[in-house]
Amino acid sequence: xxxxxxxxxxxxxxxxxxxxxxxxxxxxxxxxxxxxxxxxxxxxxxxxxxxxxxxxxxxxxxxxxxxxxxxxxxxxxxxxxxxxxxxxxxxxxxxxxxxxxxxxxxxxxxxxxxxxxxxxxxxxxxxxxxxxxxxxxxxxxxxxxxxxxxxxxxxxxxxxxxxxxxxxxxxxxxxxxxxxxxxxxxxxxxxxxxxxxxxxxxxxxxxxxxxxxxxxxxxxxxxxxxxxxxxxxxxxxxxxxxxxxxxxxxxxxxxxxxxxxxxxxxxxxxxxxxxxxxxxxxxxxxxxxxxxxxxxxxxxxxxxxxxxxxxxx
Length: 313
Hints:
By secondary structure, the protein is α/β, with parallel strands linked by helices. The protein has 2 domains: 5-62 and 222-312, Rossmann fold; 91-218, HAD superfamily/HAD-like (Rossmann fold, 3-Layer(aba) Sandwich). Helices cover 39% and strands 17% of the residues. The protein has helices at 12-20, 43-52, 68-77, 90-100, 113-121, 138-143, 164-173, 202-212, 224-233, 249-259, 273-277, 294-312; strands at residues 5-6, 24-28, 34-35, 38-39, 56-60, 87-88, 106-110, 151-156, 180-183, 189-190, 198-199, 217-218, 242-246, 262-266, 289-291. The strands form 4 sheets. A 7-stranded parallel beta sheet has the order 1-15-14-13-2-5-6. It has a 4-stranded parallel beta sheet with strand order 7-8-9-12, with helices on both faces. Strands 3-4 form a two-stranded antiparallel sheet. Helix 2 (43-52) packs across helix 12 and helix 4 crosses helix 9 (224-233). Belongs to the HAD-like hydrolase superfamily. The active site is at 28 (nucleophile), 30 (proton donor). Substrate binds at residue 221. Mg(2+) binds at residues 28, 30, 247.
């Protein structure tokens, strides 16, 4: 088993080789560059410095709550030098899947208003939402068990207003084999600072799988579809020249391994130093290096830049 090295403890020559080894810098967002949309120390300066040095910076998130435009606006507000096309989310990959499969019928989309509006903007039909509350009686419940063959796909994204009726309607539509079943993020936990973590959608998806007897097509991290989607979206020709930075071993390091990217683990989100010291995940998920934070990575980069300037004078 290979050891997992702390990049901050490597010699300058090794650190320099590390930064020279990638052209694309793909970063997870929650737990890496910010917590609850508040940038972590050093993140803005580091990422903007990398971009000035010619690295292609891309933002990868399992945030299925907000539209791409909303996330981009937060990036701009926090002074990240980013373009809207630099983002990839479960919504962008879900749209890519639905268009790839040429879904003409309505999509029963379970998620936020922004998520459903993104589907509409992409030219997809969105099935009307069921009522948020129903009469607490059997006849009212049975009314929502009826199928509708106008539904061609169920897209189960993260939904803070998930209800029993929504779950039941998804299970009803999925009785038909011709109804596509795709799922957004399946994280068990979502970083949210001291008050968190937020409960992820993992157990809800497993419940629907069991009730419906169907196996979903996941389109968020760490799925193969998401890995292929971002590779195509960002025009990546050599995955070995890509560095993926994340805070989650099961999602981020897993997906980077799936895509064939280099991996870097940071400890500002879900992963801890205990995970590093007592590795209990598949060996292929293990990155060569970890750092405590992007602030540490920023200090390494600044130190290397000073050394270069000194040696050139």
